[in-house]
Design goal:
254 residues; seven-stranded parallel β-sheet; 7 strands; globular; binds NADPH dihydro-nicotinamide-adenine-dinucleotide phosphate; binds 2-hydroxyethylsulfonic acid
């Protein structure tokens, strides 16, 4: 009898935390469904990781409800029985006071970080319910635990992820599905490039004068979370760089 590898579905796999998680999962014999909008990056990742594990890619924008459902319903049988869902796709857009914020940025953050996560989950959960097992890891943030100046709507989106994580855990409890959140502090990825719309020097400044987390640090934690015995569910985990004490307290070298 052949034992099937677990299959992980990772959103936002083209960069940062999602990409590092894909690389680590592949090295540990987890088959992958990798998602993002940037097809070229998914193609490169697939050709690299296919040397280690089975990889399928899906290109869609999590904001587009019908594309999300069509993509997930189109999964070949070999990839359709998802064991692990990593709800990671997301970003901050802008850093402005509430009176100066752009409504387009607000739409992007709520549509991607909250509604996109919900659409993907809605498409994947029925099969987990049917087999009475599965593991959902929601990538929240310290911004989902605290609000910081000018963080308003990004923080709201991540507070929503925190509430959804708790709600999913309650509602999926009858089916034995594990649900938990990993909430990082400052991780050096493309996150700040996106937040500051390509202003690289402003993005780089975010991580100057202290040692930020690397995406590999978060991937390592996600891998730890998914490799606990099945009766162990890490429900809610906060991880910050040692230099960071809270959303607003950061020890930078002078
Ligand atoms: P990156 O910008 O490096 O990665 C973001 C990923 O999300 C990309 O793969 C991107 O893929 C995907 N994504 C963004 N928008 C969409 C969309 N509309 N549809 C589909 N995919 C999308 O940032 P991080 O790796 O840092 O961020 C990953 C998660 O971690 C996010 O949820 C973020 O909020 C969270 N986080 C990040 C922290 C940090 O300091 N970096 C700290 C705490 C939490 P593509 O562009 O190809 O679609
Ligand atoms: C990302 C961390 O502090 O930029 O969620 O909000 S922070």
């Amino acid at each position: 009898m052949t034992i099937k590898n677990p299959i992980a579905f990772i959103t936002g796999a083209t960069s940062g935390i999602g990409k590092s998680t894909a690389i680590l999962f592949a090295a540990n014999g987890i088959d992958l469904v990798l998602c993002g909008r940037r097809q070229d990056r998914l193609d490169i990742l697939k050709s690299e990781l296919s040397k280690q594990t089975k990889v399928h890619t899906l290109t869609f924008d999590v904001r587009n409800k019908s594309d999300v459902f069509d993509a997930i319903n189109s999964l070949p049988e070999a990839f359709s029985d998802i064991d692990i869902l990593v709800n990671n796709a997301g970003n901050a857009h802008g850093l402005d006071t509430i009176d100066e914020g752009s409504t387009d940025d607000w739409d992007a953050m709520l549509d991607i970080n909250v509604k996109g996560l919900l659409y993907v989950s809605k498409a994947i959960i029925p099969k987990m319910i049917a087999k009475k097992s599965g593991h959902i890891i929601n990538i929240g943030s310290t911004a989902g635990k605290e609000v910081y100046p000018k963080g308003n709507v990004y923080c709201a989106s991540k507070h929503a992820v925190d509430a959804i994580n708790q709600g999913m855990r309650i509602d999926l409890n009858p089916y034995g599905i594990r649900v938990g959140a990993v909430n990082p502090g400052l991780v050096e990825t493309e996150f700040s490039d996106v937040r500051f719309k390509g202003d690289t020097s402003r993005a780089e400044n975010v991580y100057q004068g202290f040692q930020p987390l690397k995406p590999e640090d978060i991937a390592d934690i996600i891998h730890f979370v998914v490799t606990r015995p099945y009766h162990v569910n890490i429900a809610d985990l906060i991880v910050m760089p040692t230099a960071q004490a809270s959303a607003t307290i950061l020890k930078r070298n002078s």
